[in-house]
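ENTRY TYPE: paired fold submission
RECORD: A
CONTENT: sequence, then structure tokens
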Amino acid sequence: MGLLGKITQSMDSASAFSNHWYLAYAKPRQEVVACDHLLNQGFEVYFPKIKVIKRGVDEPVTEPMFPRYVFFRPTLLTLDVGKVRYTRGVTSLVRFGYELAQLNGELLSRIRALESQYTTASVDELSPVEAGARVRIVAGVMSGLNGLAALEGLVSRVAGKRVSVLLELLGRPIEVNVKHSDLALV
């Protein structure tokens, strides 16, 4: 079930008010601008990011976990949530019909835990490539060749950024070392 499927729609009392978060839909690549302006207005803001492996990049990069979505909640009961839609960097508030979408604090805690796992993960943990997996080299000189990933290779353990791939070239098996980002699962 997706994130929006887990969002609750009801707000019963002022005590529940402090435990619920709302969602703002930001302009493309304007999430940080929206966060800054929401903070300046007195809202508490959460914009989760995770590390991912990008093709052609040696190191993992940080990306939004939910692109264009910013979680926020008022820090005071007197703050008007409606004014968020006029905030710089925000396109709209996420709604279900006439009701603002709300996220329970417990679910937000789970998202924070998942973000923490991705942030502290190593390249090997982020890579979908495992020992014995069929892979295709998608970048570099050997682009397009198929092989069998062998992560137990010495170089992959020492460097942490490379995978040993067993290829059959000219009728014999050859082991080559390739970056995680240059491989795709077959």
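RECORD: B
CONTENT: sequence, then structure tokens
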Amino acid sequence: MRIIGGTFSGRRFSPPTSTPARPTTDIAKEGLFNILQNMMDIEGAKTCDIFGGTGSISYELASRGAADLTLIERDQGNINFIKKTAKELGIEDILHIIRGDVFKFMKQSTDQYDFIFAGPPYALQNIDDLPMLVFEKNMLAPNGIFVLEHTPRNDYQHHPHFKRMKNYGTTVFTFFTNAAE
């Protein structure tokens, strides 16, 4: 696992081999951030990484200047790794780790974020609830972007907030926006 761009570009980390997470591949992550750079200004952004896994997306966001990072993860092994890595990078003051269930967090959330990323387990039965909850709970700031990582078997092109989709083989990123009226 490596950080693709920004201040920490090229830094490598070895997540625990026992992690239940499926980290986003470097190729897919590089593609994702190339698209994001053309859609938003990450510098100073308030972000939320649900299904945080090993923290890879949050490190990339921090490296590119995000100012406030919230990460939701339930696995204690992953959380320990994220805390260790955040300390090594010197970002522990801007990274807020919440241990718990993503759906419970989303249903109770009152914050708005400029960018939300969800990289759930591909076999997640209620994956379709994620876009619904983001918009139902008003989690996305005006002009904010929500990215859902999923497999090609899911299709969100008819969602009212759908913006675009990018396919990287077995990894698909669907971009949703909360365009200001």
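NOTES ON RECORD B: The chain has a mean pLDDT of 93. The beta strands are 46-50, 68-73, 95-99, 113-118, 140-150, 162-168, 171-177.
STATUS: closed
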